[in-house]
Amino acid sequence: MIKRVHMTAGVVLAAVIVLSGCGATKSDEAKSTPQPASTAGRSDSGGKQSSHPTAPSTPTASASVTAAPPLKDGTAVLTRCADTDDPYATVAVRNPNGRQGVFAVKISYKNANGFTMAETYDQVPVPAKSKTKVRVAVASAGPVDQIARCEVDPRATAVR
To answer: pTM of the full predicted structure?
Structure first.
């Protein structure tokens, strides 16, 4: 049986010839054991050979996906309430994050008695560290002429 031999660059060709058998038959292999060309890899324990790697193994870098930190909520400020002349509420949404985000904005439409007639929700994309104005239609709020005031939730919730 052929033993594994630790080889240096100078004996690679000789080792290839020895390991390939060079015409040796199974009976030839059983009768003789090849002798290494150098003493590399030998130990002094009865002539046994040990194999050591030529260089320490280094860990390979694996691709890892790191999740981006969650977005912080933004702020929303009402800049204009809807009326009969312009049935849109205008809201300024600010993104405090270092990357673009989409923020949910809630607007409540109230009558003269303070009763909430309707609420609208809109999702607004806002660039990083920036502010965007959005116009929200009041079509579902009922009769626009009954809207006395608009209220905006000052917290624009980060959606994505």
So the answer is: 0.58
